[in-house]
Recover the amino acids of this structure.
């Protein structure tokens, strides 16, 4: 049951991370900024996540994993509540960075904890369940968050995500034991893998893929509005986009098992 709460936390994080795509036009209008400026909310989140995640993981590596998860989710929830009441662009940008710090600390810790609490024969499934929270977020959380934002205003979406995060936090505090195994890898250990040429090649490919995919997704709602799509139609488009991504993800895993990773990547 503990793994379910970890997956729910991942669902909240995934929803918040991707739902901004459907909210950008509304945020830009409400805060009297341009859509490209609103798009920097995504950039700030991504950079803070990338830099903050390894640093926080190493800084807090001697603290009980249950406590780390509680701190991470609490930070994430606080960021969403701050975004909900942000009165200007600077405050909203800061709140997104606060969310990123919580998210960047939560996800790797959640994956490690899922392995620690699961029986040896169920560890792979436990990891898959946690990561499925992110996948389900793109299929269900993002369209739902966009629909809530269109009906009640974009601030309501952040309130919804904060509520989901709070439920996950309560479940983890009640369900997770103390004294879970702690992370012992140092920052130098983490960076050492970058010395391998194959790792750098894979990292470069991943960066290029992410740049293309997330740039399209971030501004997905903007051209749709220009074509006359209403809020419900944009939510449906996001549902189709997320569903296709989830299907592609699962299909890619099947092909990798059958054809091998290199052949699948070539496709």
């Amino acid at each position: 049951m503990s793994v379910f709460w970890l997956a729910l936390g991942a669902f909240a994080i995934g929803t918040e991370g991707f739902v901004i795509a459907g909210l950008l036009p509304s945020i830009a209008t409400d805060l009297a900024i341009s859509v490209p400026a609103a798009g920097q909310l995504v950039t700030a989140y991504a950079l803070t996540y990338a830099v903050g995640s390894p640093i926080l993981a190493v800084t807090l590596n001697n603290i009980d994993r249950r406590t780390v998860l509680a701190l991470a989710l609490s930070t994430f929830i606080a960021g969403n509540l701050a975004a909900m009441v942000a009165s200007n662009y600077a405050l909203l940008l800061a709140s997104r960075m606060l969310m990123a710090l919580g998210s960047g600390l939560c996800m790797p810790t959640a994956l490690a904890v899922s392995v620690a609490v699961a029986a040896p024969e169920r560890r792979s499934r436990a990891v898959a369940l946690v990561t499925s929270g992110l996948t389900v977020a793109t299929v269900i959380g993002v369209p739902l968050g966009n629909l809530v934002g269109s009906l009640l205003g974009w601030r309501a979406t952040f309130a919804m995500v904060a509520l989901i995060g709070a439920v996950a936090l309560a479940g983890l505090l009640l369900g997770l034991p103390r004294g879970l195994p702690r992370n012992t890898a140092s920052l130098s250990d983490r960076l050492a893998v970058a010395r391998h040429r194959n790792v750098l090649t894979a990292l470069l490919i991943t960066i290029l893929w992410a740049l293309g995919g997330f740039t399209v997704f971030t501004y997905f709602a903007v051209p749709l509005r220009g074509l006359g799509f209403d809020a419900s139609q944009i939510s449906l488009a996001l549902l189709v986009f997320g569903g296709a991504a989830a299907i592609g993800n699962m299909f890619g895993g099947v092909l990798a098992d059958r054809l091998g990773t290199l052949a699948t990547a070539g496709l």
Q: What stands out?
A: The radius of gyration is 19 Å. The chain has one domain: 2-266. The mean pLDDT is 82.
